[in-house]
Amino acid sequence: MYLAQTRRGRGVGRLLLERLITEIKSLGYLSLFAGIALPDVASIRLHETLGFRRVGVFANLGFKLGAWHDVGWWCLPLTTPPPVDPDEPLEWSHEV
Predict the structure, then answer these.
(1) Which of 8, 60, 76, 96 has CB 3.0 to 4.6 Å from 68, enough for a Cys bridge?
(2) In this structure, is residue 16 part of a structural domain?
(3) pLDDT (average), residues 7-36
(4) Cα–Cα distance for residue pair 44/26, rounded to 1 Å
(5) 89/60 Cα distance (integer angstroms)
(6) In whole angstroms, how far apart are CA 13 and each of 7, 53, 67, 86?
């Protein structure tokens, strides 16, 4: 998720990510993953504040703004512990 420079630091990203987490969890998904082009201190802080934990880094994976960047991966478990026999998640619909 990317926000316009004029919208950053106002809590918009947090609201969007919280809504996404709620929506994904309601569909029955068990985990949510985030890939973050590094370094991005603000995005890392936002994700970790909402419970995401760093699970790995892929070196030189993302090309952004004319340069190669490492991409860090974060995970948010939505169900703890995971069920032994999980149901298939529901299909997402963009209709509100």
Answers:
(1) 60
(2) no
(3) 89
(4) 24
(5) 33
(6) 8, 18, 25, 30
* Residue 11, both tokens: 């809590």
- DSSP sequence for 14-39: HHHHHHHHHHHHHTT-SEEEEEEESS
Q: Is 43 a member of any domain?
A: yes
Reduced to 3 states (helix: H, G, I; strand: E, B; else coil), residue 15 is helix
Question: What residue numbers bound the domain in which 49 lies?
Answer: 31-78
Provide the domain count of the chain: 1
The answer to whether position 40 is within a domain reads yes
pLDDT digits (tens, 9 = 90+) for 39-78: 999 999 999 999 999 999 999 998 988 999 999 999 999 9
Task: Categorize the per-residue pLDDT at 29 as very low, low, confident or very high, splitting at 50, 70 and 90.
Answer: very high
Q: Is 62 exposed, middle or buried (0-12, 13-18, 19+ CB in 10 A)?
A: middle
